[in-house]
Amino acid sequence: MNSRRGVWWVVGVGLAISLLLAGAVSFYASSAPDGLDRVATDLGFSSTAQDSAAAGSPLAGYGLDGVSDERFSVGLAGVVGLAVTGLLAFGAFTWLARRSRRPGPAGRSPIGDAPTS
Amino acid sequence: MHIPDGFINAPVSAAAGLVAIAGIGLALRGATKELDERAAPMAGLVAVFIFAGQMLNFPVAAGTSGHLLGGALAAILIGPYTGALAVSIVLIVQALLFADGGLTALGLNVINMAFVTVLAAWPTFRLLVRLLPRTRRVWVSAAFVAGLVSVPAAALAFTVEYAIGGTGTFSVGAVLTAMLATHVLIGVGEAAITALTIGAVLAVRPDLVLGVRDLLPRPVLRPRVLAP
């Protein structure tokens, strides 16, 4: 076969695109209400919404508290969210992938199920 | 599509939380069969990409926007169980750090955006790719259709939750009609992003698309990932 790109090449390009989207392009995202908000407003039940207990988070509403420039505020919030999501997801999936190759703790391994080929 | 606190009453939200926990448990077990050392980094990437994609609201009609949900994309790329987990991680980060979607509504949001989207998209995609010719164009089109159906399916799930535990007093019919009308349009955006992304990965490394791996011309022997 011809030279194939490695998995980490694909992942690296994907991460770079994601960083660009969350860090820079997100500033240009539409600020119109999304489909559910629109329906709730049009039908008149949007007033039943309550503030989330996380509303005091420094990142609430996709802006970083204390950063007045909106472009930076949104971009930084995006980068922080990306980093947190990435750490959680890469950690969790690497751990799960390792588990899947081991016989597993007693009782959890499906009997007769070969590892995925 | 992120439900804030208060739209759906406490008992139904709590029940949804339990369903979400049970579903994540099921997905954790299923994901161990989908994940291997080549799939794990892809799964991490999918979660990151969906987080970024969900920040990008696109206009769909006058005064209305929509954004990627990602369930279809995730299921096709990394499998339904791992895909549901990836979207769940994104939703948890959004609810805790960004106050996007309520905390008591987190279970509802996980059900609608992580489970229902995958449950709608994955069988649709697999049915199409197994029935139709094995070409990249067909697979990209199947990804489009899977993305397209996933968003109205999530909107339908919200309507069911509203019917059971909505705190508003509006007729279920009115909510259903309005939700479907808006989300069919948002589904087109979802479909386009899903097809574009799947097409890009198919062009570079088709074996990294779990949804078609068993249909590739030659069985790809598990390549060892060499340390860089």
Report on the structure:
The complex is a heterodimer of chains A (117) and B (228). With 117 residues, chain A is mostly helical. Chain A has a domain at 70-103. In chain A, 50% of the residues lie in helices and 0% in strands. In chain A, helix 1 packs antiparallel against helix 3 (70-101). The model of chain B has no long low-confidence stretch (mean pLDDT 94). Chain B has one domain (10-215): Arp2/3 complex 21 kDa subunit ARPC3. Chain B is mainly alpha-helical. Chain B has helices spanning 10-34, 39-55, 71-78, 80-97, 106-131, 136-165, 172-204, and strands at residues 58-61, 64-66. The chains are: A mainly alpha (117), B mainly alpha (228). The interface between A and B is large, with 69 and 83 residues.
What would the keywords be for this entry?
heterodimer, A: 117 residues, mainly alpha, extended, B: 228 residues, Arp2/3 complex 21 kDa subunit ARPC3, two-stranded antiparallel sheet, 2 strands, 3% strand
In terms of per-residue confidence, which ranges of chain A show pLDDT below 50 for 5 or more consecutive residues? 104-114
Distance between the termini of chain A: 20 Å
Q: Determine the oligomeric state from the structure.
A: heterodimer
Spatial extent as radius of gyration of chain A = 21 Å
Most extensive chain-chain interface:
A-B, 69 and 83 residues
Provide the structure class of chain B.
mainly alpha
Summarize the structure.
The complex is a heterodimer of chains A (117) and B (228). Chain A is mostly helical.
SSE map:
The complex is a heterodimer of chains A (117) and B (228).
Chain A: H1 7-23, H2 35-43, H3 70-101
Helix pairs in contact in A: 1-3
Chain B: H1 10-34, H2 39-55, E1 58-61, E2 64-66, H3 71-78, H4 80-97, H5 106-131, H6 136-165, H7 172-204
